[in-house]
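okkk here we go again. third time trying to get the adenosine-5'-triphosphate bound version out, last two times i messed up the smiles copy paste (missing a bracket lol). double checked this time i swear
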Amino acid sequence: MMSILSVTGLRKEYKNMTAVRGVDFSLPEGKCIALIGPNGAGKTTILRILAGLLKQTDGAVTFSGKETNADIRKFIGYLPQYPVFPSWMTAREFLLFSGEIAGLTKEEAARRAEDLAEQVGITNALDKRISDFSGGMKQRLGIAQAIIHSPQLLLLDEPVSSLDPIGRRDVLTLLERLKKEMTILFSTHILNDAEEVCDELLLLHDGEINEAGSMEALREKYQTSVIEVEFQENRQRYLEKLKQLPGITACTLERQIIKIPVADIAQARKEIFQAAAEENWPIIGFNLNRASLEDLFMKAVKK
Amino acid sequence: MRQWQTLVKKELLGNFRDRKWIWVPIVLILLAVMDPVSNYYLPQILDAVGGLPDGAIYEMPQVTGIDAITMSISQLSSLGILIFVLISMGTIAGERKSGIAELILVKPVSYTAYIMSKWTALLALVLVSYIVSMLFAWYYIGMLYEFIPIGDFLLLLFFYGLWFILVVTLSIFYNTVFRSPGLVAFSTIATIIVLSVVTSMFGQKLNYSPSNLSNHALHYLQTGDISGALIGSAVTTISICALLLVWSIYIFQTKEHAS
Ligand SMILES: Nc1ncnc2c1ncn2[C@@H]1O[C@H](COP(=O)(O)OP(=O)(O)OP(=O)(O)O)[C@@H](O)[C@H]1O
Ligand SMILES: [Mg+2]
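finally!!
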């Protein structure tokens, strides 16, 4: 797969701490990649380095074959975590301005401004002062200005964290659409957001990438499922019996339900059903729970 | 060039929207005409508040047009400069501190265009305010005292204007060095004061110092000949401005632009 950007040995030291400790990754072209990590993991730092706003202490960022020190800003769109606009401008003025400094002609910029306002849903507010915008509208305007020059790579720092459920829905839908036109790297600490639109994950913790890969591959890797069995009576006794079965290492009784984490679902199921049939266990519920991505996240972070 | 234009347009619009284009010229006009006018009406003012005590003899010194314009200039040199520093202290530093610069500089904007646009827009405001206020002063002085020949006045306007260009350039320079507008203002004023003090201490050796511009220009008004020192000061000032601009751009390029 062609990668649009590759990063090797990236390090960033602030005055008194190291925020990014030598990370390597590459962004496959045309994909949507999520940079996931808890607060303080270094997400913003990495995105700012990629956008050219911070200088790395060490390491290289290469943009699909271009020189390491070429001006790659033309190919990049960026939305900061907390964007601050010249609030005395109207949204239209700001979009025109952004387009023109990014190299569009006046006419192109004007056309893009209309078009993007429509896409992000601020057409009605286009001629309002930005100082009168709500947080959600600002976030939409922020996305519009980031893509006004049709960049090849779009960097979004927590684009949905500050939005209400409707705004979040809108932005995720928008990303889904943009994915067809550009590579997207966005940071978030909310797994659901990543899960919804992303093809690839970069799991960042404490300035290091703990895990990277496609969504499916990661799910597979961390797959552990939990079998939940509910008995009509004598739960304690059956708990002991279950523990004796081959292939089952641990099980717990939580709120009347016995939970059995297993690696090999098929094997465990066979054992349980066999025993249940032979001894006529009073089973009233049988459930298979696949581990959520959230558990995966916790696991990878704790590693 | 197109980028520079776009950026200048944004700056001008910003200064217009927050009324700088209105209040800065007005305050400057007040500063420039206040002293010549109040000096003219001093006898009446004294009368109105009860006159002088008996026995005191007050003789009005003969005030020439040049004396009067000197008063205007001394106001502009102190309070005027303070205002110019105030309006320029955050032009880049504030934008970086707030995070607006992040949105601009992540676009493929040349740092030279960015700095030069700030300089140009600021200079436009400062010079227009300065010229308008001096024209007002010239007119009132002409009505109340005597008219300064227009050619002489324009020469004064030009050479003394260089001093304000230096002030703006200094402020732009410190704007690229510091991220705090307060620190920018402090450093700019401190530099101007140090320059003036050093110049007056070593007056002879530093005859070409920028802070001698107003002295030399006023001297020209009195004597009518353009001295080598006036040209010298002008050349020094322009050179320092050019140097500061190049240096500012260099410093800015080496800085990180995230807030
Ligand atoms: N300018 C700075 N000076 C010093 N330390 C900094 C600076 N910026 C960030 N840091 C530190 O670097 C670490 C990573 O910060 P960063 O903002 O990249 O995290 P993040 O993953 O974006 O967090 P969040 O989810 O809260 O936005 C943090 O510990 C932070 O305190
Ligand atoms: Mg962050």
